[in-house]
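Dear support,

I submitted the protein below through the web form. The confirmation email said the job was done, but the results page showed an empty box. After a refresh the structure appeared. I'm attaching both so you can tell me whether what I see now is the final result or a partial one.
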Amino acid sequence: MVLLNSLEVKRELWGDNKGKFKSTVIFDNKTTSISMVLPPDVSDKLLQFCVGVLCEATDEAAAEFKKNLMESVATPILLKDKTVSVKEVAALVKDAY
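What the results page shows now:
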């Protein structure tokens, strides 16, 4: 069975393809690794295909982070021999900005 090991999409910073995306895809099985560099036109299509999935994953990660942060508001933090809540620290940070 061949599995996707990695997928990297980068914007070219110089050369003939400056400003365009280039992708590198690596597949592995138990004995072999195959690496391919995809040209800009294929990379653009690949990125368009991935955008929805990436946005969904980002939204899920943000929701999980927010949930964890809200749950930790009641958790005390020890700062230089003084215990303060995360809520107090958040208020201090908010006031500073």
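Response: this is the final, complete result; the empty box was a page-load delay. The mean pLDDT is 78.
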